[in-house]
Amino acid sequence: MSPSDIVITGIGAVTAGAIGRTAHWDLLQNGRVTTSEYDYSLKLFRPDSHVKDRRYLRSCSQADGIGLAALSGLMTDSNYEPEYYSPQRVDIYTGESPPNPQDHSGHFEALDAARDQHGHISERVFGQTSRSARPVTLLLGLSNNVLCYGSLMWDARGPNSNYTASVLSAHLAVINAAKRVKRGALDLAIAGGCSDSTEEFRKATLIATNTVAGYANGTAVADGAAFITLERREAALARGSRILASYMSSAYSCDGLGPARFDPDGKALYDCIIRALSAAAVKPSEIGLIFSGSSGIPELDLMEIEVLGRVFAGAGTAPALADTSRVLGGLMEAGGMLDLALVSEFFNCGVVPLAVRSRINHGQFTNNISPERPFALALRCSTSGEYSCVIVKGELN
Amino acid sequence: MKDSPYPKSQDNKPPKRRVVVTGIGAITPLGHSMDTTWDGIVNGRTPASPIQYFDASEFPSKIAYQVVDFSLSRKLLKNGEDAYLCESAEFAINAAEEALEQSRLLGNSRPGTLNPNRIQVCFGMGLPSPNIDWYEKVFFPKKLSHEESLNNARILPNQISTIIARMVGARGGISTVHTACASSGQALGEAFESIAYGDADLVVTGGADSMISPFYTAGFALLGALSKRNDAPKTASRPFDRERDGFVFGEGACVLVFEEYDHACKRGAPILGEVCGYGITESAYRITDLHPEGTGPIEAMQMALDDANLRPTDIGYINAHGTSTQLNDRIESLAISKVFGPSSKDTLVSSTKSMTGHTISAAGALEFAFCLLALHHQTLPPSVNISSFDTDCLITLTAPEAQARNFSFALSNSVGFGGSNTALIAGRIGR
Q: Most exposed: A140, B59, B279, B388, by fewest CB within 10 Å?
């Protein structure tokens, strides 16, 4: 099997700016402002009308609901009919955020009832009052609900996993799903992630780890979910599927410096990119487009651009550089999927849309996307020094 | 519907490299090391007691297997890192230190030739387990101080993985997995595949969890999953007993060093056992229940056997997920009987959760370590707390006391809320 034998055949995406593939490309092209008083929030999003089976939502958090809405959209976009493949050879790889306090909302009444006159909550009394909460209270706070309900929705019973690795989560899902497809252990892999990072508690957590480095400089966190389907090209074509892009290779690495620390020299990120290029048998000079990780954190972004400069120093004409987080926000566990699925739109457009031109591009990279070099490199970078790189190939018209 | 192109062959499965285990560390209710924990297992200790972490007097379930007298080892920690550690992550630090020490990856015993780009970390981490004081402090105030915000960072599951990566000098990548009770079974499986298929030479893997908190105690009790034998904590966790009434929380961490066989030999690392096969499936049935026919675990066990190229009769011992709930034990034993034959005498079964409690995200790693030690010592863990074996479970349990047995392979099952099922096969070195 050659690297390009694995293809992306669909995307389901729900963000604060758009729902679905076409609407997202429209969004990136036109750069509609998606920030509002709710930032990139989907607090007001009601997944009911988007989810195939609403019963699942009874024991789901808001992030789960967004995720299931995206998975429902993916089924339409990938034109997949459940049971086409053997259920044992279909499954879901997810990235999900850890639970937020409101995911314990089933306990709120019991907590209030356990409050004494000074406002203190008594554990002993909570032991009594919590007995009248809904039986499914616990389930709201589980971090693998989308994996579970998505498997039910898709009748997916094969190998699976769920990653809680912050901004790398969805990339790790894709990387591990693609390995399974490549080895012949899966026929269809669904991979992606969902996040409700604009919730205040999560935001505060991210501030503490320098991910949201104060309100002026740092990631503009966004809620959302995005999942893609990966299949073998031959099988995808046999079922009449449209090919959005070819998956070539991937790699991940880390600095190994501990929490909330990264190496400003970027050696691990450099190694990660080189390994991915090598696995795809693609030279830097064949890369026409880069989707930057663009955390929004100045020091991390500076390191990223310097590393990219080193990788592409001898590549002749510089590739184009795009930053979709400028429009989508920092999608955390859901981040990076739209880059992979919309790569062909970028190549066929021939130029990086104004709204998603990188702010860290100081002339080293271009905005013109050459169809002669139809490979794209997509990065994710975390403040804890974790990196991933996925290489995809656009399908030219 | 279009014609499905299936069944297809799996011909393009590449050849696998041998994966061995060169270090194990554990912090459990049975002990603060793998040796003391194993000693507790072979002696059938059941250290469950009333919950000490909070006032559980009015909760339906008031008992747990708790790690007592624990003290965080700061030997390998850097300044400020402890701020990122929740309770279970603290357990993982000590367990990792023990595993890395045993694997000769620390200090003067560490060879200088290790390639950091070929070292990874893959860890199964539990959910944050806030107590009510902490919950009030961080959730209800409108604004948080920086210190309080930093406190929140303790709940981020990938923090412990980044610290372990620093401890071992890993630059090959970090992966943090959460699939409820299958988390660390899955982390071990992914670590195994990463080495077997050539992506890494050494992976530090394992799991950690502590769910002994008011929210999770209340939440699991609402689902009817916890034992209410509050007057008899030591005999409350009784997998496969007719009178079982739910699981008892445990807590702890288990860290293992997986390594490619030649890589381990070259650097003279101790080889404690072999990882031979891995199976992973999704039940896609209900979030908390197994399919009544046990399809998910059946397929996971068969997948692991195929992966290891073994027959069911090759497996001498199964460490069952065996939670002590009516449903899990009935269906898991049905699944085992379908794969290994009804009440097979070739393959004896036990659940060590009678002695550790249910350590949730740490369970898969800990129970796989028990399989390795059972093979190493040629000793089967006992089946304790069985006063009346549930004869509807068509399996043959191990004896009430630890017993010598000559066997070469053991299998460990994990089943998680959300439907993930894993099966891992351990092999004896020199078999």
A: B388
